[in-house]
Amino acid sequence: MITTISKQRISDFQAEVNGNADKIRRAGQEAWKKVDLDPSEPKIIYDFLSSPGVGTNYLNATLPPLFGPRERVMKFASIFLHQKPMVLGWRRVFGQNGPKEQSLPSQCELGDLQFLFLYLAEDKTVCQCRSIIFQAKKHVSHGDYVIEHPCQRPLYDECTSFEYKTILSGNKRTLPSGTARERGLQYLFLEAPFVRARMIPADAGRGAFVDFGELLLRLMNDSTGLEVIRRPKGTGWDQIVWDLIDHVANTVTRNKQDRNNGIKSLFDHFNSFENHANAFLPVGAAGGSESGFGIQFVIVWDSQLGGEKPDSLSRGMPFALLDMVDEYLEIEDEHYETRIKHKDRVAEKMARLILDHKIPPQRVIQAAEHFRDEGLIVGAAFAMRLDPTHDLEPLLKIGSRVKRLHVQGGIVAAIRRVVHVGLRDKSTLLASEALIKSYLATADESLTRAIHALQEDLRKQLGGEGGSERANTR
User: Fold this and answer.
1) Any domain includes 143
2) Domain range for residue 154?
3) Which terminal residue of the chain, N or C, has fewer Cβ atoms less than 10 Å from its own Cβ?
4) Kind of pairing between the strands at 113-120 and 293-302
């Protein structure tokens, strides 16, 4: 992953959070103290999100001053959706013919409350997002499970996927597994004297209870909450979280927008982040608070982070490029051809963004060298393949440090394209020859073919002088 100034800013914020740990824990506990915990779970959550002097309102009064006045502004904001996202869970069962998927007996709500931590740039671009979805209960069950509901418990503890019955009826989503699931799906018990979160599974002797104040601290310092990316791939956690955000944004704005503009317009309803008076938004059909789904935002807005990077090495590089780099480095499809196609597609998107923003590939390579990031290198290489008028020397210098075969392939393709348009500088041709020869020791079959083809081109350009020798490969 790229070590960008945004990540350093987030790390600095987390250090401030840890320095105020006791105050954050205390505020989290106090936020629930005057909430009436006798009504139904949705009514309790509605009051926490909307009522003066408690919940969201109390957190806004106590925690943002701990982090200002500085370049960062914190705001707690909340939404109550007057429609529960209902789902039908699917779990894997084993029969005589092996494993198969089986639906739960009936549908249930996806959750009662969602927490979203958002670290935003100056233009409201999302730099970091983490989320937890809670099933809320008034009391802990004292049997084999802390939650006994025949569908709610297995949805969180056992189901591999679910199908929407409302909001996006018919669409199927995949639930996270392992430790990721524990960060993203949790239980919330609305009991006096302390509201507590509970890790899954619901087995009485397993998961741990965490006081709400401690939960809030962990959400803010990245010890809980499952990371969410802005570019969902497939039907997993990222898509589940954006399903809910997009639904709210589209309901509020009454028209579909692209993802980043949708969330920006949603934040516009809370006015400026410095203004904590306007922090609650009810969404959907008018009515009571006896049914619905709550969303609690923890927003940190950083005026020192714009849509473009302000540091000298990456000035002019939009966050979108760095997002693509992270996406490229995370590609791990087991199927070789699918993996390569995905990598090619993302690398070409990076290249076109570099060229569209008129960012010299040499500058991208400088940033790649500083950050030790091969994702930037492949973006620069693909850009030079599309526009072969740029100097090859910076790419050749950094190329000897590249270990990823796909990035090596991108460099080989860039060199070949430049050679085809008439490279005549002998020293550059010889440096290219030496670099690609060094790749042969670890090259796979596809890369080996590409290298041999380029060696032939180089031999022609060099006129037979010092041309490449065919090398044996593994």
Assistant:
1) yes
2) 5-302
3) C
4) parallel
